[in-house]
Design a protein that fits this description.
Blueprint lengths: L1 H13 L16 H5 L3 H7 L10 E5 H17 L3 E2 L9 H9 L5 E3 L2 H9 L4 E4 L6 H13 L2 E6 L2 H13 L4 E6 L13 H12 L3 E8 L2 H4 L4 H24 L6 E4 L16 E2 L9 H4 L17 E9 L5 E4 L3 H4 L7 E2 L5 E4 L6 E5 L11 E5 L3 H5 L4 E6 L2 E7 L8
Parallel strand pairs: 1-16, 2-9, 3-4, 4-5, 5-6, 6-7, 7-8, 8-9
Antiparallel strand pairs: 1-10, 10-11, 10-15, 11-14, 12-15, 13-14, 16-17
The chain binds pyridoxal-5'-phosphate (PLP).
Length: 412
């Protein structure tokens, strides 16, 4: 019995699951080993990303910082603000960088995400999804009690009444924006009279404080070609813009008109009254966004740099025209277009099977051998991040920090 116990203890220690850091000469730092390091220890350990055990989620700090700067400079020069969507990164460390860089706050998609962000030091949070269940409404209003910068979206009179009652029960007056449908019929209330009446109701309800409107047009973000995307975005935001005008003329508070995303961040400000862009993916970029084309290049959207990669190891090179890696659907998702092998050409990546990725050679710029490591750019960044407990913040090749994905799996 004692032997079993002892060997389990030894196993735990060598596997790095214990709280103690065990220096090891073996290349291939496991996520648990690295998590146990203090920031100072990480610095002195001088670990290269190529020594990380795989699959591992990496974020290139130079690219990430360039993306934050690009967004902030653009919105500022367009006379608006940024309120980035944290549904993309689910990571308070990045939310804090965004706010330090000038964002007026962040957005979250779920109340649990908002709770995680608040718990880790973020106070300015717009919850862009309407909560309908009594338990979520209560949670949101309870969060508002502690988080004074919390704003909740609503899209029906029934919901607004429930919010007001829950806010009163929590002893607060809750900040609310009216969510307006841009025509997708996914969420939000119809623009014009219905939205105006809801805003008037919110303004009158004793537990609520109207802050303005939200209108997110997800259907325009990935329209290929800048001019087509611009035309569709502005056409579909126009009704929300008119509603904004109606609200203003009715004397309602219109301090917030939030919306837009990575594909429309340099377009949305042309809608009168628009105040802030909720872009999320711009911090990381992904294969889906790279393909939409920008103002200067119809094929490649290069306003932002791909900063997020999945580091993977080649497991098998025995067959012609292909190799197998350890990053399949559970590391990359099955979203398409498929992940892109970073820095290489003439090869395609497939992540359709659970545990294995495949590189298919066409006219490859290089070939891989077993145990080689390589990076792929995610197909769609949001669901990929949700697969990992942590991401490695890398400068050059060096791991500078380990960022917990604190809101990972917070989908309720
Ligand atoms: C309400 C809302 N705002 C903003 C965004 C951010 O969009 P993107 O990641 O395309 O920048 C999303 C993404 O789905 C969203 O749902």
């Amino acid at each position: 019995m004692k032997n079993t116990f002892e060997s389990r203890r030894r196993f735990l220690l060598t596997a790095g699951t214990a709280a103690i850091w065990i220096p090891t000469a073996v290349r291939g730092y496991s996520s648990t080993e690295l998590r146990s390091l203090e920031a100072e220890q990480l610095k002195s350990a001088n670990i290269s990303k190529w020594e990380l055990d795989t699959p591992a989620l990496c974020v290139d700090l130079d690219a990430l910082e360039a993306n934050l700067t690009m967004m902030q400079q653009t919105v500022t020069s367009n006379g608006i603000a940024s309120r980035p969507h944290a549904k993309t990164h689910k990571c308070p460390a990045i939310a804090r960088l965004q706010i330090e860089g000038g964002s007026v706050g962040i957005c979250t998609a779920k109340v649990s995400e908002a709770e995680a962000m608040f718990e880790h030091g973020v106070n300015e949070i717009l919850l862009t999804t309407t909560n309908v269940s009594p338990s979520k409404i209560t949670r949101a209003m309870n969060l508002r009690k502690w988080c004074t910068g919390f704003i909740q979206a609503t899209d029906s009179s029934e919901n607004a009444r429930s919010l007001s009652e829950a806010a009163q029960a929590s002893g607060i007056i809750a900040d609310v924006v009216v969510d307006i449908d841009p025509g997708m019929h996914r969420t939000g209330i119809s623009p014009g009279q219905p939205a105006l009446e809801l805003a008037q109701l919110v303004d009158q309800l004793p537990g609520l404080h109207l802050r303005g409107i939200l209108c997110y047009d997800g259907g325009s973000q990935h329209v290929k070609g800048f001019s087509k995307r611009k035309a569709q975005t502005l056409e579909r935001l126009a009704a929300a813009g008119e509603t904004y005008g109606l609200m203003q003329r009715s004397g309602l508070n219109t301090e917030i008109f939030s919306g837009g995303g990575t594909g429309s961040y340099n377009i949305d400000h042309e809608t009168p009254g628009f105040t802030d862009v909720q872009a999320g993916s711009y911090v990381f970029m992904d294969a889906q966004y790279l393909a939409i084309g920008g103002a200067n290049d119809p094929e490649l959207y290069s306003d932002f740099r791909p900063s997020l990669t999945i580091l993977t190891t080649v497991l098998n090179d025995q067959y012609d025209g292909r190799v197998t890696t350890d990053a399949g659907a559970k590391a990359c998702t099955i979203n398409q277009p498929w992940p892109i092998v970073k820095g290489e050409t003439g090869m395609q990546y497939r992540s359709g099977s659970d545990e294995f990725g495949t590189i298919l050679y066409d006219d490859p710029s290089r070939s891989y051998r077993v145990n080689d490591k390589l990076e792929v750019i995610a197909s769609h960044c949001d669901p990929v991040v949700n697969l990992y407990d942590q991401m490695y913040a890398v400068r050059g090749d060096r791991v500078e920090a380990i960022w917990r994905v604190e809101a990972r799996g917070m989908s309720s």
